[in-house]
Every structure is written in C-alpha cells, then in structure tokens.
Amino acid sequence: MENKEPIIEFQQVDLSFGSTKVLNKIDLALDAGKFYTLLGPSGSGKSTILKLISGQLQADSGEILFEGQRINHLPAEKRRVNTVFQNYALFPNMNVFDNVAFGPKLKGLSKDEVRLKVETMLSLVKLADFSNREINELSGGQQQRVAIARALANDPEVLLLDEPLSALDYKLRKDMQQELRTIQKRLGITFVFVTHDQEEALAMSDWIFVMNDGVIQQNGTPEDIYDEPINHFVADFIGESNIVKGIMKSDYLVHFVGKDFINVDAGMRPEERVEVVIRPEDLDLTTIENGKLVVTIEDQSFRGDFYEITAQDDDGNQWQVQATNSATIGERVGLTFDPEDIHIMRFNESENDFDARLERYEE
Amino acid sequence: MLKNKTAHLYLMVLFTLLYAPIFFLVLYSFNAGTTMQGWQGFTWNHYQELFSDYHLIEIVLDTLILALLSALIATIVGTVGALVINRQKNRVWKNTLLSLNNVLLVSPDVIIGASLLILFTVCGFSLGFVSTLFAHIAFSIPIVVLMILPRLQEMSHSLIDAAKDLGANDQQVLSQVTLPYISPGVLAGFFMAFTYSLDDFAVTFFVTGNGFTTLSVEIYSRARQGVSLEINALSTIMFLVSIILVLFYYLINQRANRQRKNKLTKIVLPGERE
Predict the structure, then answer these.
(1) Higher pLDDT residue, B20 or B266?
(2) From CA B89, how far away is CA B92, in angstroms rounded?
(3) What 3-state DSSP class applies to A70?
(4) Which superkingdom is the protein from (chain A) (predicted)?
(5) What is the pLDDT, as a whole number, of residue B113?
(6) Interchain CB distance below 8 Å, B267 and A129
(7) Contact A102 B163 (CB under 8 A)
(8) Do B268 and A139 touch (CB under 8 A)?
(9) Burial of B91 (0-12, 13-18, 19+ CB in 10 A)
(10) In this structure, what DSSP letter does residue A134 have?
C-alpha cells in the first residue's frame, strides 16, 4: 500500500431499496491509478457501488469520500468521475463526434480544443476515421469504443465501467479486455470495472472486490483471491473448486475424507470444523499406491490443453481434476497433491480476522 | 396474378370514389354558369371573383394565423405537459393524468364547443379571435401530448444519466438530450394541431363571435344560401396547395433516405463480427 490518501473511500455505506438491503456496511478504499474490479453475481450490489460513486444514487447512511472530501450529496455532473454504461447510452440524435464532444463542449472548451480532444480520444479507441458516423451505423463493438472515448474525453480522475463487455462476443471481449488495460496504464487514471465474469476480473485487475448479497466478501489481488479464498462463496465463484468438510486437528494438520494431511494453514482452534479447498489443476492422477486419495473416474471431457475429469471417492465426494493425461471411465486411480495445495476456510471468518491470522502464522 | 389484379381494381375503384367529388368540385370552379347544375363552358370568372373578395381572403389569412398560433402554443404547453406526466413516479397519478388527457381527445366536439361557450359567457369573456384561439389551443393540447408521450416513454433513462455523468445540469439535459430525442414527436404534434385547427368546425362554430370567423364557419354560412362557385375556386386552390405540400414532404423524405443509404457503407474493425 502506498502512503497516499485514497482517491475514493466508502465508510460504513448502507443502502436499501424499500425493504431490500442492497448494500450492507460497505468499507472500501481505492488508490489512484489502479485497475479495480467489483466482481459478483447479479444482485450482489456491485453496480450499486458504481452508481454511488458516480452520483446516480445516494447512500442511506455512511460516508463517501473523494480525495478526502465528502461527496455524499454532490450532484453527478459535478463529480470528477465518468461512466461507461452497460448499454453504452450513446445519444442517438448525435453523430460520433458530437457524442464524444458532449462533455468537452459543456466544459466550455474552444472549438479547436474540443476537436483536438475528440480526435485524441477517438484515436485512443482506434476509431479515428469514424467521427462523422451516425450511432446507428456502428456495430456493438464500435459503439462500445465510442462510449469509452466519450467518458474519457471529460478527463475523469476515475473511470467507472458497468459490465461494458457483456454484450460483445468472446473474441472481441478478449481484445477489449487487453485494450482497456492498455488504455488504463497509458492514462494512469483509476478504473473501477464491474463484472460478473471471474475470468475477466482475474485477467484485468490490480485488485478485486468480490461481492455477494450487498457485502464485500473478500478483496485482494487476483492471486490472493484465487489462492486463498476466504469462504465457500468466494472459492466457488472464483474458478473451479473442490470443497469438502474437514477438521483442523492442530496447526498444519487437517483431517478430511477419513485421513490426516499435512498442510500449511494454522491459527485455528484444535478440532475446529473447517472447509477444505483444492483447485482441480492442483490435483494429479497417479497410481493407487502413490495416491493420497483413491477415486473412481466418472466422466472425462477434452478441453484442448487439458482433460476435465470428474471422479468420486469412497465417501461419495465429487472431485474435479484437470489432468494432462487422459484416464479411463470406471477406472480406480490415485489422486495426489502437495501440502501447499490444501487451502483451509473457517466458517464465518471475517476478512479482518482472516488477514490477521495469515499474518500471525506466516511470520 | 389474379389476386394482384383484383387488388388493383379495388384500389382504383376506391380512389375514384374518394377523388371524384373533389374532381367534380374542381371542374365546376371553371363553369361559366353560376351553379353546379349543368356545364356551360369554361371561365376564370370565379377566380377573379375570389381574388377580389377581400373579405374572404381576410378570413383565409385569419384562419391560417389562428392555426399557426394555436398549434405553436399548444405544442409548447403540450410538450411541457408530456414531460410532467412522464416524470410522475406515482403510477395511479400518472394514469389519472393520462386518462384525463385521453377523455378530452374522444369527447365530441359539440360538447367541448358548448362547454367552452358556457365558460366564456360565465366569465364575461367576449367572443372573437382570442376566445377562438383559446378554444383551439385547448383541444390541440391533448393531441400534442399524445404524439410526444410515446417518444418520451421509449427514451432510455440511461441517456439522462449519461448526460449528467458528462457534466450536464438539468436544463442542459433537457435542451441537449431530451428535446432533440423527442423532436420528431413534437413536430408531428405541431402539424397535427395545425391541421386540427384548420379543419375544425364544431368547436369554432360555438366560440366565434360576431366580428371574427374562420373559413369552415364562413363556408358553412355561405352554403346555406346556396354554394357560390367562388367557394369551388377557393377549394381548388387549397387542394392544389395541399398537393404541393405533400409532394414537397415526399421529396424531403426521399433525399433524407438517400443520404442515409450513402452513409451506410460500414467499415468493420478486424476481429469484429457484424
């Protein structure tokens, strides 16, 4: 963490629509110049956070700060943030140039300044020759680019992107992910990106907030969140996971599927009931004698660079395995993994407790 | 093929029936006689008579000014009304406003005319140009509202959010985003109001006083003494003007379409699907 004031800060922010609690005591701090992602299923409150930052919604209680100044009731048009809307929200009665020029013109820039700004922004999104086009003549991907150029033309400190890639096809989405990342690095401003696509979040972000039911479940770097999910929801939502029930016998010793395993987690109560996570790519097929687990292969499908294998152990637990070698359905094989591949999750552990525990035993 | 022929025949009969009276009227505007009974040779007399009838020309001008003015005011009031109705969050209240608007549209002209007449007399308002203007504005507003509301309803709220996001205040949102978006509806509303005002007989009949009259009321009162062929000449000119207007409109539309088509050659970015 840098020793700078965060550009955006939420303190204990609450919001309800009628009797539905949309956000529950949200705390977050965003540093300038980073790429943040709010990740969660629909209805988790991630777009609501975006609307609170942009000023489309007002918080019921709590503080929203911009560079240390309270902006709870500052109207949207006075905030130094701009939004790329999910449906692009381009003005249909204006052409590409006028859409991008909308913000700069309102700011009272001269004609030449406006033209320069629009040209710079359009070339940034690779639409330099499109300024005279009408909006309805553009494809979805092109409209997307115009929406980004229009938002950036206002020189925002923070760019908010509300699921901007969800309407694009797979290949175009991949390209745009990279391009957005490049644009963010080039401009050096803060991006807050909302998505329900965990792959997208892992690929693009410096820092991810995983949300569910109006609560931030976990935040951290993509690696942290993937490797050390805090609870069942995060483990399940981010990537594929094998989750089984277990008991922490003592520090560095966990019991699950009827056996004791050495692992790298500590700091729990003795005999504490926990959940055990092992990622499918960390499991390897081996012989029954060498296997830490013995399973029966149930299903297998070829995925190009690996085989997706479903297997069942003798206790009836399902195991997902990503293996480089193929197996035979019905065959009994061993599964092996390293102690550091076992990740332990405590029930109802808060993020603060989780971080504190990690720090304690990692020292 | 047979089906096609029947359809053509049907349309021909239909249009003949529709246009025959007008053709008949135009033809007799050149009749040397003084009635529509029997053709007595060609003459421009009725046109000469028409152009020297300053009273009638004055009425034509009055009617046009009335239509323009009432349509203009009704468009402004109706646009504001549509914006207000559309902004209502309370559904019951919104539907009530809408129903009140629609009731005015379907209620008979005679009733509107009579009630306005009663209103004006009770208030001691003298009948004349101003009373007629008020009456025309009154029955045009619901039409304008009805033309504009659908455009407003189909407009996505995210456009307003986007405009605010980019720094527009409420007034700028209205003038630069909302109004341009609904402008086709506003224009249509204006023209509807204009033609309704030109057309109207029933309401106008009640609220025109002694000094002021419109074309429809004037033609009606003249017709009671037997239609002079001067009226035929006037109708012919009005018919011609409307044909020219329709042609003009058609040409503008054609040109707009062609421009649109020329622009439609898209450039597709690499890796992008149409």
Answers:
(1) B20
(2) 9
(3) strand
(4) Bacteria
(5) 93
(6) yes
(7) yes
(8) yes
(9) exposed
(10) B
Task: Give residue B273's pLDDT.
Answer: 39
Q: What does pLDDT average to over chain A?
A: 91
- Give the pLDDT score at B264: 47
Tokens read off for B8: 């053509």
Residue B269 confidence class, pLDDT cut points 50, 70, 90: very low
Rounded to two decimals, the ipTM of the complex is 0.82
Query: Is the Cβ pair A82, B264 closer than 8 Å?
Result: no
Write down all domains in chain A, each with its CATH number in brackets. 8-227 (3.40.50.300), 241-279+339-363 (2.40.50), 284-336 (2.40.50.140)
How far is the CA of A254 from the CAs of A36, A258, A285, B20, B235, in angstroms? Answer: 35, 10, 21, 99, 100
CA distance B79 to chain A (A): 18
Per the CB < 8 Å rule, is B177 touching A89? no
pLDDT at B259 over 80: no
- Specify whether the CB–CB gap between A91 and B177 falls below 8 A: yes
> What is the chain A residue with the closest CA to B264?
A137
**A chain contacts of residue B264, beta-carbon cutoff 8 Å:** 137
Structure tokens given for A7: 């550009």
Residue of A nearest to B169 (CA): A77
Please give the average per-residue pLDDT across B163-184, as a whole number. Answer: 93
Judged by DSSP in three states, B274 sits in coil
Of B162, B181, B272, the CB nearest to A172: B272
pLDDT digits (tens, 9 = 90+) for A51-61: 999 999 999 99
Rounded distance between C-alpha atoms, residue B273 and residue A139, angstroms: 8
> What are the b/e assignments for B263-273, b being 16+ CB within 10 Å?
eeeeeebeebe
Domains of chain B and CATH, by start: 53-227 (1.10.3720.10)
pLDDT of A362? 65
Burial (CB count <10 Å: 0-12, 13-18, 19+), residue B210: exposed
User: In angstroms, rounded to a whole number, what is the distance separating the alpha carbons of residues A170 and A184?
Assistant: 21
Residue in A78, A89, A139 nearest the CB of B161 = A89
CB A221 within 8 A of CB A189: no
Which residue has tokens 């109802």?
Answer: A348
Cα-Cα-Cα-Cα dihedral of A134, A137, A142, A148, to 10°?
30
Q: Which contiguous run of DSSP H or E holds residue A77?
A: none
Q: Do A102 and B166 touch (CB under 8 A)?
A: yes
For A206-232, write each residue's pLDDT tens digit: 999 999 999 999 999 999 999 889 999
